[in-house]
Amino acid sequence: MGQIGHVLDPSLPTGAPRIAATADAKVIDALVGRYRLQPIDLGIDLRRKGNALITQADDQPEFEGGYDSSGDFYSLEALLRHKRKADGTYTFTWFQLGGACEAARITPAPVAIKWTPSEAQLKNYDGNYLAPGFVLRVFSAGTKLFIDAANQGALEVQPSKMTPSLPKQLAPRLASSPTRPANSLP
After folding, report:
1. What is the pLDDT of residues 14-23, one digit of tens each?
2. What are 52's strand-pairing partners?
3. Which residues pair with 34 in a beta bridge?
4. How far apart are the first and last CA of the chain?
5. Could you give the count of Cα atoms lying within 13 Å of 36 in the half-sphere of its Cβ?
6. Phi, psi of 117 (to 5 degrees)
């Protein structure tokens, strides 16, 4: 019953207060789409506007809801509780006027676009990077990217998204050894 349960029965715990928070942009992006709320058979669109989730039910005005520390999107009248399904897509339950409606996605879930870097893009990462207590060697061979920490043996890594500033984030680049260029294979 949550906090209302405490009002009805003071022996029940009040629960933690909900405070405004910032929603994860990946969750907002994953929720974007068209849904049908069951059992009331109402269509609803979820859109992204900046860092907010915009909700618009059929024949209703759109509204921009907030997000709270419990992980729910909310307005003055409703609450949207998202959940991740086993296949990695998202759905939600809509709570309003004491009722709960499950959402069924009508449009296909957004597809993540895999970044496939070119050989030239991978070459931009080649070099030695100072990390706490060791030197991290990053090098490419064709369309593959490798790392070697403290000469422990090269490991192939898979880029997950375009991050051209990654070397600056890791650590300052060291000069390549004259006897072993940074992009040579072990």
Report:
1. 778 889 999 9
2. 49
3. 45
4. 61
5. 8
6. -70, 150
Phi and psi (nearest 5°) for 151? Answer: 55, 40
Q: How far apart are CA 145 and CA 140, in angstroms?
A: 4
- Non-local (6+) Cβ contacts of 56 within 8 A are 44, 45, 47, 62, 63
User: Which stretch of DSSP H or E encloses residue 149?
Assistant: strand 144-149
Q: How many of the other CB atoms lie within 10 Å of CB of 176? A: 15
Q: Which residue has the tokens 């942009």?
A: 25
Whether the ω angle into residue 164 lies within 30 degrees of 0, i.e. cis, is: no
Say which amino acid occupies 12: L
If residue 169 lies in a helix (H) or strand (E), which one and from where to where? helix 166-170
> What are the contacts of 108-115 at 24+ separation with CB within 8 A?
108/33, 109/30, 109/33, 110/29, 110/30, 110/32, 110/33, 115/159, 115/160, 115/161, 115/162
Phi then psi dihedrals of residue 6, to 5 deg: -65, -35
- The model's pTM: 0.54
> Hey, what domains does the chain have and what are their CATH numbers?
2-105 (2.40.128.50), 119-174 (no CATH)
- The pLDDT-based confidence of 115 (bands split at 50, 70, 90) is low
Measured CA to CA, the distance from residue 147 to residue 126 in angstroms comes to 9
* Tokens standing for residue 47: 């859109």
> Residues for the chain: how many in total?
186
